[in-house]
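Morning. Coffee machine broken again, so started the prediction first thing and wrote up yesterday's gels while waiting. Chain of 104 residues, entered below exactly as on the submission form.
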Amino acid sequence: MENDNKLTYIDQDGNEVLCEILFTYKSEEFNKNYVLFYPVGNEEDEEIEVIAASYEPQEDDSIGELHDIETDEEWEMIEDLLDTYINSEEEEYDEDDEEDEDEE
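Came back before lunch.
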């Protein structure tokens, strides 16, 4: 289930976990859609557990049912995407810091 930028994930123990969507990605190579997300409430932890899954978009563009990542090649692509995302966020954060310093 998805709500704005959140989804409810059923973990391996059958518990419903509210998660924040980090980003979605459509892979032409694997002809699949992917979503990367993390449990809400972990934002202050030093290390956030990012979860990845594939999904088939619903008619209303919601995420719908999640599926396990099936191959090592898919995991490699997801790790590369996550690294790129993290690096771009760090660069944006650094640019914001520089702008703040320039204003002083």
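Residues 34 and 54 are 4 Å apart (CA to CA). Going to sketch it on the whiteboard this afternoon.
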